[in-house]
Write the structure tokens for this entry.
Amino acid sequence: MSPVTHFLTGWVLANTAHLGPRDRAIVSLACVVPDVDGLGIIPELLTRHSDHPLLWFSVYHHRLHTLVFALTIAIIAFAFSNQRWKTAALAFLSFHVHLLKDLLGSRGPDGDQWPIPYLAPFSDRVNLVWRQQWALNAWPNFVLTVALLMTALYLAWLRGYSPVEIFSCKVDVAVVRALRQRFRRLQH
């Protein structure tokens, strides 16, 4: 699934608990961070026509989709959050929701699936794959993204902060103000 879908999923999940802005950001980013290994696409594309192409995406994508990395993210979340246990638990859950969504709908355009090496580097016996996985550009992914976007906008209107807060408090205030002005009749 797209990084936007993962980000919105993490932000909506973070809003299931009473968390401050920093902790919401941590839980939101925990749902995106497994795909940091996807950045290998950049050197792969840049070197694809060279004598020594760097196949970092082809070889290493989903290599961070592991229990070890999930625990690492939970420990980092614990260390940097205000509500340590709650945020660490939600970050761990957020990471695993990412994995579940990848199992459901991340098949490549050529029909290829990336198995998730969940117990790596300790064991290669558990590779998570779902044979019915839909394509990355299939309609369920679009529906999920739109549903998450609508939920995020509703929560922003209701609570007074949006996913934009992670990037800019000033822009976040403007987004919420615009939503509340546009949908004024819905307010209590």
Observations:
- Residues 3-135 form one domain.
- The longest helix spans residues 84-105.
- The helical segments are 3-14, 21-30, 41-47, 56-60, 67-80, 84-105, 139-159, 169-182.
- The chain has a mean pLDDT of 92.
